[in-house]
Amino acid sequence: MDQVSAAYDDAGLYGLAAVRAEIDRRLAEVLPPDSQGKNRIGDAMREGTLAAGKRVRPTLLILAARGLGCESPALIDLGCAVEMIHAGSLIVDDMPCMDNANVRRGQPTIHRRFGEDVAVLTAVALLTKAFSLVSSLAEVPPDLRAQLVSKLADAVGMQGLVKGQYEDLHDGAHPRSAEEIAATNELKTGVLFGATLHMAALIAEATEAQRELLEGFAFELGHAFQLLDDLMDGTQLQDKDCGKDEGKSTLVALLGPDAVKKQLATHLEKADLYLAELYGPEQLISRFMHRLFDDALKRR
């Protein structure tokens, strides 16, 4: 059990360490088996996905849906699909033609470990595996499966992660307003949180009002995560390269760290309000969220 899971396990209700274990066990099953170097793309898929990480998105999906009374066995596979999308996006983000990163999740980045050719193919393979997993959910009716696939595709495509990455690369080197930076942050980080929680709402058969509350929570959480990432960039406390935002027009560069910390706190307060209205006080999902941010900010 890793340090993050151990810290959360006293939270009660579903036991976050158990949720994390379910996710990791299923990921290990659906990814190609360890080939000891015979299948380099398969090995890179495993390494890029199973490396130490918080599994934030799949955990949120599972907690959000279970909090609405959903115990579908499809939840774990949905969470795994989201994690594979996230892992694939990180592999692309780290490439020399993108952020040119050397370290991710405390290990050499996939392109440094396996080569750029394998890294590109690995990212594509993870994306296709994620969509295959969602489209083959036997417990989910075909029309709902189609909605889940569509939501995930929208998050990845030209109006989602792809657009956010392009804007970050090509606009980030130029002066931007706080509003423009926030819009890029929403695409870089927020859209996948939004898709994750929208999928939780779909599988849980949430009402329109419940879905709107989850969407509001996802919006605030996505912005908070991007602000946290920007705040941590100049430190040695991350499990990835530091200083990669140097020269970029981030909110930290524009407003300063103190102002960004206040913005982050505001986003978390708003996120809590959405959760309280949806689930009531003292929900596990809120405790999970705060522990993630509190631990990181204490180390900064």
Compile the SSE list and pairings.
Layout: H1 3-8, H2 16-30, H3 40-50, H4 56-67, H5 74-94, E1 103-104, E2 107-108, H6 110-114, H7 116-135, H8 142-156, H9 161-171, H10 178-203, H11 208-232, H12 251-255, H13 257-279, H14 284-299
Antiparallel strand pairs: 1-2
Helix pairs in contact: 2-5, 3-7, 4-5, 4-10, 5-7, 5-10, 8-10, 9-10, 10-11, 11-13
**Level-1 CATH class name:** Mainly Alpha
Q: Identify the strand order in the major beta sheet.
A: 1-2
How is the main sheet built? 2 strands, antiparallel
Radius of gyration (CA) equals: 18 Å
Span from first to last CA? 24 Å
Mean pLDDT: 88
- Strand content range: under 5%
Q: CATH superfamily, called what?
A: Farnesyl Diphosphate Synthase
Can you tell me the CATH topology? Farnesyl Diphosphate Synthase
Number of separate helices: 14
Helix content: over 70%
Number of domains: 1
Give me the oligomer status.
single chain
Q: From the helix content, strand content and strand pairing, which structural class follows?
A: mainly alpha
How many strands in all?
2
GO molecular function, one term: prenyltransferase activity
Cofactor: Mg(2+)
Organism: marine sediment metagenome
Family: Belongs to the FPP/GGPP synthase family.
Could you explain the architecture of this structure?
A hairpin with a 2-residue loop joins strand 1 and strand 2 (107-108). The longest helix is centred in the middle third of the chain and has 26 residues, at 178-203. This protein is mainly alpha-helical and 300 residues long. Helix content is 70%, strand content 1%. The chain has a two-stranded antiparallel ribbon. The two termini are 24 Å apart. It is built from 14 helices and two strands, in the order αααααββααααααααα. It has a single domain, classed as Farnesyl Diphosphate Synthase (Orthogonal Bundle). InterPro entries: Isoprenoid_synthase_dom_sf (IPR008949), Polyprenyl_synt (IPR000092), Polyprenyl_synt_CS (IPR033749). This is Polyprenyl synthetase.
